[in-house]
């Protein structure tokens, strides 16, 4: 369907016939009745050519008006965004995640598991929230999974200043992710938080309280525990990390705390000790209710100015050819 950006300009087309009548009268007045030198008699071909020239002038003026009105070709398209869920990854990057009981260390395993989860979550909006003693948004909720994976890969021990923001505040991170999910909630679309941590939360709000809040808001929770239940010494970049009283920091998986967090949210807990952990998570997520982010009618516009300009250029070329070459007036 053809539409116009400035349709009111089309009223100028009514002035073209008026201009043509005026133009013809002007040409008749300028005609030389008895020229001093007449090389040949005016032929019917010349008279017809003059009429064609006048018609071309009218067509050129009409095309100029059409070009000014900016014709558009419009199509109505119904757009659907891909079905999926809202998925928030809450990732522990505290100092204890440098423990090497999962080589090369827990953080690298966390990044590998999280990236694989994003790759398999086709159609989901994914956000990434990292935490130690403080929480931060590493990636806002988005469908750009490639960018999310890159931002997960960019996480490191240096992402947070552990001397100023050390410790683990899993509860605060859960609340941050929950607030973001609720702010962007789509009715009927399931929302999921996946918490990946070693479970040693020692700062901020109690993660069990945060988990209870998730349940009240209808946000599902999956908890993945990374680490071993026996204490391991923590190194970062080849340097031992100091803990309380100057001793080298030791860490172990707080399996009991993570189970309590999952229980408070009526969620599920998985211990990342084999590749089967991801399979079990995806089997549950695949049964969640999926809904398109939005479905809306969009009008797609395509400008036709290029075609109008081409026709106008062709008319001008024809006019100059007729007036300057074929219908040139005889010398007098």
UniProtKB/TrEMBL annotation:
Source organism superkingdom: Bacteria
Transmembrane parts of this sequence: 6-22, 48-69, 308-327
Record bears the keyword Transmembrane: yes
Record carries keyword Transmembrane: yes
Domain VWFA: 86-285
Keywords on record: Cell membrane, Membrane, Transmembrane, Transmembrane helix
Gene3D superfamilies: von Willebrand factor, type A domain
Name of the protein in question: VWA domain-containing protein
Species of provenance: Hyalangium rubrum
